[in-house]
Write a structure and sequence with these properties.
567 residues, two-stranded antiparallel sheet, 53% helix, alpha/beta
């Protein structure tokens, strides 16, 4: 039956109207009932607005949806909501951080039916683990994600990255109610033995991207030094020539394309002739004679100037191409900036030689000589880096396993082993850098070998852990768009990053339907976790007044303790 008093009588602001919400709690009329003292709240009333807040669920969801999908700032969300409801910008921030994110975490924990469906369809789940590099001495944020469904199973911070810490982090996976088909991660030093201890029988696939990147470390370092040396050599030979770009206005040397109110000089207009003045005679163009060996008539000066302008434009474009090649950046292990720059400059040199054989030009001659000297100074190093790049390309091709039918794990491992044996047996490799690089390939491959090939026998196991890196990267990119400050983005990642990576329903309406039924007890537990984590940052402020107040409070708490007695 219903009680005779009203519980939770309040006015709630929603996106459509201002409503008054009140409910009479229900209880059991039988005094002998075990739950006679319990008071049951109205479910309908709770789904209008949360306790202790006067804004409806639709307002909370609208704030979270605009923040996460439209990357809107708090000021922009406040400006969008103000015509509909009275709300302060600080309240927008509070509802997002302390209501929407905890609700999203509670909703994520309720998606067990998706895990059950994926486990039944694929014969088990695939777990991916990765961490975000810490800033200074801050704890490192780690995340456990189910690959097939995209659900975040566990997300938080680790104070250390040793085996004992990782064992505690992945321990809940041992009691997982669904079978785990495989685990995908990078080859972190403490994580590998921790997974071997907690999940000893589960295949552990290492990220092949990190394997190739670690393989190419010495090659990338050599290529980076080569890039610097090549740029310095070209600029030493051709620096003034590369910097001398033709300005649109010869009267303003060094000033290139301009726009704005003062985008350029005023056009020069000729004054009209005075009445009675005789018209000026047409200018006589002097002839531009051809070589004496020909009997062709002299070419007009205008045509000669036109040819010179075309030649100057061609040389300018070649110089711009050269200047651009000096700005290339690599992306090891597959793109090496030094090798790519060298190849591009070689092409410019070859074309310049062909042009110079047809028509002489002093700037083109200087370009050819400068490139010849610069490229010759780094040619031996380039040859070694190109050989190493060929090795890396061959290993990448083997791991890609593009043949039909798809090879098995044993076949791919055998192909890679055969190529490693071929490299070891190559007696023509005598350069010290290449010999050291070959030893590095052997050492890294031996370390990664146990976890490289599980993905070829199981289609659902990804070869790389790039999905986790994309999750972190997309989250940081979204936070950067909503804040506009890199420093503030890092602070948000450390203070609420575990909640920011959680996935949300596909639409705003679906989010509203999913977050309304969240139990208040679950929401209270999630808010408690957020408060406990926020306590770590209580003194992370540059405000002198706040810092002084916090330190004074700590000192008062200390002085309130009983003093230590000394005997």
């Amino acid at each position: 039956m219903l009680a005779n008093y009203v519980l939770g009588d309040k006015t709630v602001q929603t996106l459509t109207a201002v409503v008054s919400v009140a409910s009479r709690p229900a209880f059991c009329a039988d005094p002998q009932c075990a739950g006679a003292s319990m008071r049951l709240r109205s479910v309908a009333g709770q789904q209008v607005a949360l306790p202790h807040t006067t804004y409806g669920y639709d307002v909370v969801v609208r704030i979270g949806w605009q923040r996460q999908t439209r990357c809107a700032t708090y000021a922009a969300i406040h400006a969008d909501l103000t015509p509909q409801i009275p709300i302060a910008e600080s309240q927008v921030r509070h509802l997002y951080q302390h209501t929407y994110l905890p609700l999203l975490a509670c909703h994520e924990r309720q998606q067990t039916e998706h895990l059950t469906q994926a486990a039944e369809q694929h014969g088990g789940l695939v777990i991916a683990l990765d961490g975000l590099a810490p800033e200074g001495g801050e704890p490192q944020r780690w995340c456990i994600r189910e690959v097939l469904t995209g659900l975040v199973l566990r997300s938080g911070w680790l104070s250390r990255q040793d085996q004992a810490t990782f064992e505690g982090f992945v321990q809940p996976l041992r009691d997982f109610p669904w079978p785990i088909r495989a685990i995908v991660s990078d080859k972190q030093r403490g994580l590998v033995p921790a997974l071997a201890t907690v999940l000893a029988t589960t295949p552990h696939q290492f990220c092949q991207t990190h394997y190739l990147r670690n393989l190419a470390d010495p090659l990338a370092a050599t290529d980076s030094a080569l890039t610097v040396t090549l740029r310095q050599a070209v600029r030493a030979e051709l620096g003034p020539l590369l910097r001398a770009d033709q300005p649109p206005d010869p009267t303003q040397p060094g000033v290139l394309t301009m726009t704005g109110l003062l985008e350029g000089t005023a056009p020069v207009t000729e004054s009209p002739p005075a009445p009675g003045d005789a018209p000026a005679p047409p200018a006589v163009e002097p002839a531009c004679p051809l070589p004496a060996a020909t009997d062709t008539a002299p070419v007009p000066l205008a045509s000669c100037a036109h040819h010179a302008q075309i030649a100057a434009d061609v040389v300018t474009q070649l110089l711009r191409r050269t200047r651009y090649l000096l700005t290339l950046k690599g992306r090891p292990p597959l793109r090496l900036a030094g090798v790519e720059t060298y190849a591009g400059l070689q092409e410019v040199l070859a074309r310049s030689r062909r042009l110079l054989a047809h028509r002489d030009d002093p700037q083109l001659t200087r370009l050819v000589r400068g490139l010849e000297d610069a490229l010759a100074s780094v040619a031996p190093t380039v040859a070694e880096v190109q050989i190493g790049a060929t090795w890396m390309a061959r290993i990448t091709t083997i791991l890609s396993a593009a043949a039909e039918p798809a090879p098995t794990a044993t076949q791919v491992a055998q192909q890679l082993q055969d190529y490693r044996d071929e490299l070891e047996a190559d007696v023509t490799v005598t350069a010290p850098r290449l010999v050291a690089f070959r030893q590095h390939l052997r050492k890294v491959s031996r370390s990664y070998w146990p976890g490289l090939f599980h993905c070829y026998d199981h289609v659902d196991i990804p070869r790389t852990n790039n999905g986790m890196e994309s999750l972190f990267r997309d989250t940081q990119r979204r936070l950067l768009r909503t804040t506009g400050q890199k420093g503030r983005t890092r602070r948000i990642v450390h203070r609420s990053g575990a909640w920011e990576v959680l996935s949300h329903p596909p639409t705003e309406a679906a989010s509203l339907e999913a977050l309304r039924p969240i139990a208040l007890a679950d929401l209270a537990d999630e808010r408690r976790r957020m408060r406990q984590h926020a306590e770590r940052f209580r003194l992370h402020t540059r405000s002198p007044r706040q810092t002084t107040a916090q330190l004074d409070r700590l000192e008062q708490q200390w002085l309130a303790l009983p003093p230590t007695t000394t005997g």
